[in-house]
Structure formats: structure tokens, C-alpha cells
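Final report, closing paragraph on structural work. Over the funding period we assembled a curated collection of sequence-structure pairs, and we close with a single example.
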Amino acid sequence: MAPAGGICGPVPPIAVGGYHSLAICTDGTLVGWGRNYEGQTDIPLGTFMAIAAGRDHSLAIRPDGTLVGWGDNDYGQASDVPMGMFAVEAAGFWHSLAIRTDGTLVGWGRNYEGQTDIPLGTFTAIAACAYRSLAIRTDGTLVGWGSNGYGQNNVPLGMFTVVAAGGWHSLAIRTDGTLVSWGHQTDIPMGTFIAVGASAHHSLAIRTDGTLAAWGWNNYGQADIPKGLVASAPTQGGAGGFGTWIDEEAKLKRRRDNAMRKALGFD
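Its predicted structure, as stored:
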């Protein structure tokens, strides 16, 4: 199902998967578009309040707290949804996570690297990537588990409110707005932040003044912020991009990126 112009309002909740996208419209209905080989954009009936997209599967939470999954289900990541009332969900390549309304965390799907071996505690935020998971406990501390080849689960100390999981790096925002990064890519821009997102090799963040920051690989322009683009928070001017590459370095990065995508099953 493809989105119609304007149907989802100015700033809908969105989720991006391996080759598909989801958005919740202002009336609570859900739309999906992109590759649909596994049925990941075959939207279920009803209204929704939260969504997540994995490599080829999708998750959504209804207003009554029930959770539904669809799309690729080779490891049960879409169908083996646990019982309960949920507030937050996250989707990795072939695993899924969700936080119940009482703060308990559950995980299901592929567990090759231990990415669904849930730690003890209650939680407020979660993030999932290819073969690993991150979560913020109710006391603000951070925990990571699953694949850890670059130390991307060796979490820093502090009290956190937001967390994001990239391919081989992790990001989190402390309660004072400072941004920290660990794992394979650890360069971060200056400022204090309210939101952050991470992909395989690049990252995005929204500062407290509404300006945007982007850094990391830029071989396809993914770190080039469009001129004048700001978040809905009050802004004090534009933001520059980070991590632009000279031509020869861009070619090398592109070759590496393509090799990584093939290794991870994107292509």
C-alpha cells in the first residue's frame, strides 16, 4: 500500500526497514510501501500508536496495547509475539523486542548471537540492530547484549534517555543532553541533543535547538543535510553535515559499503 499525498500529516511516526517503510497517519491508520516480497507492507486492519521495521518484517502496537507482527517470519520474529500489553517495540534483522506497560522486556526471533537473551530489570527504551540489542532501564542505566565484535555493547556509564543501534556502533543521549558513541565509529558532533538515529555507517541527531547533525559515511550523500531542514523544535539556524569524503576516499568507502551490504544480506 503506497502513501497518498498529505495523508500522514506533517510529522507522522515513521519506521524504516531494510527495503520498506511504514508510517502512522494522523487518524491512527498505518501505511506501508517499498519492497513487499515477504508481505512486510501488507498492513493489518486497525489503528496503531507505535511501529518498528526490521530487515523484512514489521511490528505495530495498537491503542489497546496489543502487538502485531507481519512479513518475513523465518525465525518467528513476526508471529511469535508474546502475550501482554505493550508500549514500545523494536525490530532487528531477524529478531524483535518489546517493552510491556509494566516495564518488562521480551525478545523473540533469531538468537544466534544472544540478541534475545533478555537481561534482568524493567525498561523504558530499546533499540535493535542486525544481531544485537540495547535497552535503557527505568533507573536510566544502559545495557547491551548480542553481537559485540567492535565493543558496540560495552555501554558507557551514566543516566540515559535515548538509545540507538547502528551496524557496528551505538549512540545514546544522557539526561543532560550530551551524546555519547561507542563501538566502531565514535566521532560525534558538538552540542546537546534530544533525538538520535543510527544506520550501518552513518548517524543523525537533533539538537535541543532543533538543528540537525549528520556524520559518518557519506558516499551516497546520506550525511548531507538538505539546506534549511530542521526539526519541529525551535531552531537557531541550519546545521552542517559531518563526514564528507574526497572523491577517491568515497570510492573506497562505496566498495566497502557494498561488500558489507552483501555480507549482511541487503543485496
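The domain at 14-199 is CATH 2.130.10.30 (Methylamine Dehydrogenase; Chain H). Residues 1-11, 233-253 have pLDDT under 50 and may be disordered. We thank the funder for supporting this effort.
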